């Protein structure tokens, strides 16, 4: 990828309005810096089935988690973290039909995502609403769960800072099985943006 024009899709996700002002400014600044570094930036307004993916991720996570931990929850409840009890307790919330729907929609979204980004080297997307959370909080997973369900490789680049000098990262995402190429693209993007800011 070194020395050639990169084509990066810019996808703000359906949760753009939930981002902090710092997070939005950092994301837009990075997209603008990419253009300034000679990267061909392509706006992506929507992706197929994307808005359903967080709900589908939760349905699969809770239903399969319930199945995996039900026996242990009954036999040795003291050994399980409350998160796993929550999954077991939610078993009735996600019947077979909902699990099938979630898996089917996820499969369609994988194909749709790869068709929608054909010809791009990667997709730039927010990693989180803003700065990294303080302490040990896992933060807001909404911006990352869809990529997990799509089986898409993701590289986080901490290219901006926000309040208190805390990092604000962005994600570069690629199609399934493109992990090595994505890492090369991420290195090239980071190199070009580092050079432009000097």
What can you see in these coordinates?
The chain contains 6 helices and 5 strands; from the N terminus they run E-H-E-H-H-H-E-H-E-E-H. By secondary structure, the chain is α/β, with parallel strands linked by helices. The chain folds into 2 domains: 7-50 and 117-197, D-Maltodextrin-Binding Protein, domain 2 (3-Layer(aba) Sandwich); 53-99, no CATH class. It has a 5-stranded mixed β-sheet with strand order 2-1-3-5-4. The radius of gyration is 19 Å and the shape is globular.
Instruction: Give the CATH architecture of the largest domain.
Output: 3-Layer(aba) Sandwich
The CATH topology of the largest domain is D-Maltodextrin-Binding Protein, domain 2
Outline the low-pLDDT stretches.
none
Q: Given the C-alpha coordinates, what overall shape results? A: globular
Task: Write down the Rg.
Answer: 19 Å
Summarize the structure.
This protein is an alpha/beta fold and 198 residues long.
Spell out the key features of this protein.
alpha/beta, D-Maltodextrin-Binding Protein, domain 2, 198 residues, globular
SSE arrangement:
Blueprint: E1 7-11, H1 21-36, E2 40-44, H2 53-75, H3 82-89, H4 96-116, E3 122-126, H5 145-149, E4 154-161, E5 167-173, H6 179-197
Parallel strand pairs: 1-2, 1-3
Antiparallel strand pairs: 3-5, 4-5
